[in-house]
Amino acid sequence: MVWTRFVVLGALCTLFTGCGGNSGGDRPTAPVKVTVTYKGNPVEGAIVQFISVENPQPAVGTTDTSGNCSLTTYKSGDGAILGSNVITITKSEIDRKNIKAGRPEDADLVGVTPTPNLKSLIPNKYSAPGSSGLKEDVKKGSNAFTYELKD
Length: 151
Hints:
This protein is mainly β. The protein has a single domain (25-101, 112-149), classed as Immunoglobulin-like (Sandwich). Helix content is 12%, strand content 34%. The strands form 4 sheets. Strands 2, 3, 6 and 12 form a 4-stranded mixed β-sheet that branches. A 4-stranded antiparallel β-sheet has the order 5-4-8-11, with no helix packed on it. Strands 1-7 form a two-stranded antiparallel sheet. Strand 4 and strand 5 form a beta hairpin. The chain starts with a helix and ends with a strand.
């Protein structure tokens, strides 16, 4: 009888998101607002990532027409993980002038799609954690960061 109570309580606890209030090891986050500009103009459609050195789950946002975005790690608008983060920013489009054709031997195959080339619309160095040069320390409370991208 006692074991049955523990089993039932354990099942109820699991059913109601794990007794701890956090969903399976989520790290603490804080709201983060970002503004991205390039050559003095807001960058619309840039993908911004804050990558925590302690957690592989990045915070991500896409800039609006004003170059602004809010970041999301686990749920909409929750921000980025507290602590040290490396930042990447990317914006690209398909380069329609230089679409790579498939292999010559594939030319007659139905359904073979040429491989698109992506053209970066901002300096490519910002797309990788090792070359972006952007780092931030996210703290409790609201955080706001502005990035003026340079060639």
